[in-house]
Every structure is written in C-alpha cells, then in structure tokens.
Design brief:
The protein is mainly α. The protein has helices spanning about 15-20, 35-50, 60-65, 70-75, 80-95, 105-115, 120-140, 140-170, 175-195, 200-220. The protein contains 10 helices and no strands. Helix 7 (about 120-140) crosses helix 8. Mean pLDDT is about 80; it is low at about 1-30 and about 225-228.
C-alpha cells in the first residue's frame, strides 16, 4: 500500500487522525468537479476488485479514471486515503432503511439480499475486504480505519434488528451485532475465496437458516461453554 501520511490537524498529526479526517463532502469539487472525483474513486474500487490491493498503483488509477496523477494527488495524499474516501462515499450515499418483515429471519434475508444485489455496494465490500486483509498484516492502524469505514454503519443497523427481535421475544437473550457480523463474513469469505463460488440468494438462505439463526437463538444461553 501507499502509506505516506498527510497533514490535516497541524504540523505533526497522528496517522489515525489524518486518516479519520481524510473524508470530505461528496459535493466538494476538485479539478473538473464532482464527476471526476467519483470516477477516480470508482477506479480504485474496480482495480482492487480486479487484482489485489497491493498491486494497484496510483498510475493505474489515473489511467482507469482518465485523470492526471496531479489531479489525484491534489485531493488524496496516497492510495490509502483514496480507497477509504471511495468506501465512505458508497456507504454514505445509500439509504439504509431497516427491514420490517415481521420476523428476524426474514429481516436478515431481506437485508443481506438487498446488499448482494446492489453491484456498487457489493464491489465496495469486496474492495474493503481486500484492503483490510492486506492492511491487517502490514498496517494495523490503517486496518482499523478500514474496518470503521465499512463495518460501523452495518453493525449499527444489524444491532437495531437484533434489539427489536429481543424486545419482541423472538430472541431470548440480547445479542451483540458483532457476533452476527462475524458469522456472516466468515461464511461469505470462505464461500468466495476457499470455494470460489458465488454468494447468491440460495446461499444466503442457507447461511441465515442453517448457521446464523441457530447461533443467534442460542447466543447468551450458556450452552456449549466449557465447565470449570
């Protein structure tokens, strides 16, 4: 990755502060304007999906977006900042209405299927995961920022679903959304990387019915804990 720092808060900001403050409103025009920024952001997401995060260069991004490197570097100090901004734009732009089908099982199916059917969002997830895998081994600070960029809002929405199910009595115990997130991401990662198979509606139904719902229904019950 390109990991050069940039200054946002003064002469010597911390790397985390720099990355966290990196994003600016989508309406900010640089160079030829908003359309050019969006093209550059889309280019980095597409390139990461097509290869690996570490193999993507700013030269390649410039060529894909038909922009000059000078234009890119006027807006983003490095590839890390560019990817995070691109991810935040995708997640901030979409409406995040809470499904309300009457059951947690159907809410989860609706929620997940909506996401996998939205190409722009799905591509952003894949790019985020590739960047996260690489950053987790080379730059824990950057990995933390990427996690926040694409996980935080998703986990908050999922928590609302789980809290509603607990309040209605569908879940016997309160459940932390991070548990559900980990289960789903583990299944989808294994499916796409180890099995090289698609995550389609049938697979989502299998994960929800045979893996996620049993975990959620028994979470916090104390079953399966090692005795002392």
């Amino acid at each position: 990755m390109d990991v050069a720092g940039s200054s946002f808060l003064g002469k010597r900001p911390s790397p985390l502060a720099a990355l966290a403050k990196m994003s600016c409103p989508v309406g900010t025009a640089v160079g030829r304007g908003v359309a050019r920024e969006r093209a550059i952001c889309q280019a980095v997401v597409d390139l990461v999906n097509e290869s690996s995060y570490e193999s993507v260069t700013m030269d390649a991004v410039a060529a894909r977006a038909k922009a000059s490197k000078a234009t890119i570097y006027r807006r983003w100090a490095n590839k890390d900042e560019l990817l995070i901004d691109a991810l935040q734009r995708v997640f901030d732009d979409r409406s995040d209405a809470l499904p309300d089908t009457g059951t947690l099982r159907n809410d989860l199916l609706t929620r997940i299927n909506q996401q996998i059917r939205e190409p722009k969002l799905l591509n952003a997830y894949k790019a985020a995961l590739k960047g996260l895998v690489h950053a987790a081994c080379t730059d824990p600070l950057l990995a933390g920022v990427i996690r926040t960029s694409f996980m935080e809002a998703q986990i908050q929405t999922l928590q609302r679903l789980l809290d509603r199910a607990h309040a209605s009595g569908e879940l016997q115990n309160p459940v932390a959304a991070a548990l559900a997130w980990e289960v789903v991401q583990a299944q989808f990662s294994a499916r796409t990387s180890l099995e090289a198979a698609p995550v389609d509606a049938a697979y989502v139904e299998h994960v929800v019915d045979d893996v996620l719902m049993p975990v959620l229904l028994h979470a916090g019950s104390g079953t399966g804990r090692a005795s002392r």
